[in-house]
Amino acid sequence: MGNVRVSNFSVSLDGYAAGPDQSMDAPLGIGGEQLHEWAFATRSFREPLGMEGGVRGGVDDDLVAKGNGGVGATIIGRNMFGPIRGPWGDSDWRGWWGAAPPFGHSAFVLTHHPRDPIEMEGGTTFHFVTEGIEVVLKRAQDAAGDADVRIGGGPATVRQFLDAGLVDEVHLAVTPILLGAGERLFTDAENLASGYTCTGQTPSDAVTHYHLHRAG
Amino acid sequence: MGNVRVSNFSVSLDGYAAGPDQSMDAPLGIGGEQLHEWAFATRSFREPLGMEGGVRGGVDDDLVAKGNGGVGATIIGRNMFGPIRGPWGDSDWRGWWGAAPPFGHSAFVLTHHPRDPIEMEGGTTFHFVTEGIEVVLKRAQDAAGDADVRIGGGPATVRQFLDAGLVDEVHLAVTPILLGAGERLFTDAENLASGYTCTGQTPSDAVTHYHLHRAG
């Protein structure tokens, strides 16, 4: 079985993984897109989205490529799939990513509201799971086989898996800005303190990458 | 007039500047001393305290020396001066640092309880100021002359000055550990978001140093 990991997860220097006032127009919250500029600038980020340009090679591009590689299934929270709250009704929302999302594998959406799977172009199928983090992780691991399961976000979803001790590796990209408000990745969680050790910090021109592994 | 600055201020990767449960025996909170190991290991930290050893030169030692240099007055919070709460009574507490504190200049202690100044060995005089941050800053700037005023800590004191927009430069040392709980430097403060820009990030073997300046 592969690892369970968080990769290329951007936080501000003051600890926010999204800006305040997330909405349809500002899915990353106000100012939140600044957190990801380092990744937007890489070829490995842009290529799967069909976008031109981007820097090939270097610390940032290498880590984006490494983060995307070897992943057999992704778990995301409801908010990362879309802005809709409450029951799905007859919504035809199919995610933020258009007809061919960049996952290319099964993406499991944690939600309180059941919905049939949606098969997208390019190999992505969205599955909607209402039974909580242990069940969604089991289903993702079954789908991934020997490959890794990636916890894609948002912050609340990553935090749930961290608090439950279910994550093997965490790679954070600290963007040197102060957002001042928004959604934190880390809230008080004393069980984390002894659970993870930092095994590397890698600066790029834009950010500093921190690599954490679960102890023991 | 010099700058108002915060230098060599250590925070954990999850944003804590002190561990939980601060006490007489654990003035930095549980686990809090780990935040400062990078500084303890430098010659420039140890020399003013009369301690042997420490690495001379390199990123960390250079920044400790730079942080201590050119400071004409320091402002600290009550908790950084000592563990006593409430009125001073007939306490003979003279700070955490022994007979000759490392400041070597006037150190202004923010407190709600008046007390006569205490002249220490080595040039440090503790002044106790009850009139709030604007007044203490004025007094510190008068004492410093052309030199800088340093906001020494703890986290609550630094935050007060940051929130009021009174700090010109902030140098943070992010120590790659997760404390899980404790006292944060940054709490929600939307006025900070546009107030500071990061002008440099410098990795050492132990930490990453971030340099922030007040915009415009």
Automatic annotation (TrEMBL), chains A, B:
Alphabetized GO MF terms: 5-amino-6-(5-phosphoribosylamino)uracil reductase activity
A GO biological process held by the record: riboflavin biosynthetic process
Organism lineage: Bacteria, Bacillati, Actinomycetota, Nitriliruptoria, Egibacterales
Entry-linked SUPFAM superfamilies: Dihydrofolate reductase-like
Name of the molecule in the record: Dihydrofolate reductase
Annotated Bacterial bifunctional deaminase-reductase C-terminal domain residues: 7-192
UniProt xrefs under InterPro entries: DHFR-like_dom_sf (IPR024072), RibDG_C (IPR002734), Riboflavin_Biosynth_HTPR (IPR050765)
Top-level division of the source organism's lineage: Bacteria
Ranges in a coiled coil: none
One Pfam family matching this protein: RibD_C
